[in-house]
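User: Predict structure, ligand manganese (II) ion.
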Amino acid sequence: MFYQRPTLSKFLIEHLRGAPSEQDLSALLVDVAAAVKTIAAVVAKGQLHFRGEAAPDRATVNVHGEVQKPLDVLTNEIVLRHCEWGGLVAGMVSEELDEPYPIPADHRRGRYLLVFDPLDGSSNIDVNVSVGSIFSVLRHDTEAPPGPRDYLQPGHRQIAAGYAIYGPTTMLVLTVGNGTHGFTLDREIGNFILTHPDLRIPSETSEFAINTSNERFWEPPVQRYVGECKEGRSGIRERDFNMRWIASMVAEVHRILMRGGVFMYPRDTKDPKKPGRLRLLYEANPMALLVEQAGGRGSTGRGPLLDVQPESIHQRIPVVLGSHEEVERIERYHREF
Ligand code: AHG
Ligand code: MN
Ligand code: MN
Ligand code: MN
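Assistant: Predicted complex:
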């Protein structure tokens, strides 16, 4: 019966039972899940309650130079409020905060760092296309409050990562280091139910995702790869390809976890100051861990994303991730270039 399917809490107890050092991790992920449920409710209200764009005289710009939508700001607040009080987190980094967020003095600090993108794909909010939230959990094993450098940990040091996707259903997809698992929100009982255990990404695919309006700025290996996909069997590839671009990374990665594919936001020459569009700590690293835990591959195009040593908390990075065979081909083209 539906009420017998494993909930997120039951899953976490079972998967973390053998890891006493992570006993608080379950509690933190339950707090994150509560924040996600609140965001799902807020996003679903749409413009019944929230203007898509801030009034021009009240618009604010984040550290990336992006005009913040009211929901960018509100979802950021929701995550901070849900996760600051439980004594589990020592500090937080958000796409929407210039500096790391220190846990208020009247709250106990914990041993985890929470790094997150509270609303991914926010340009889609006004056109009612799926958006999401992305999060990553790192360790902080000292009593001292974390400084910016404590967040600069390579992606393979993540102890948990996940995203929520607010689409026709709200789903939470996460890893605690042993596989990638999907949970669907049952709104009637308010619980996340394990509906997609042990997700596996097919190694082969016939779908690629890239913003082709940037084609003239791509490096030759990417132009070569995408050109071959577009030629399909009339060129050297053994099958024809389909292209997708949703402009919500969460939706692209979710499609890849469900049926395979390759997602690229590669280095381009459009803005020499930006080596890539996406942010390493709270977009690329959590997504790369989820994809690799599902048998896929996460790369900068030149090497594993999870090995990159971050240099700043809002650092951008080129991203190529998804079906193993395709990502390896793209890396080979970079080596041959
Ligand atoms: P965010 O909304 O958190 O700023 O992230 C948007 C990102 C990512 O979700 C998406 O893949 C990419 O921006 C889309 O970029 P383009 O608008 O250049 O296509
Ligand atoms: Mn943004
Ligand atoms: Mn994002
Ligand atoms: Mn965002």
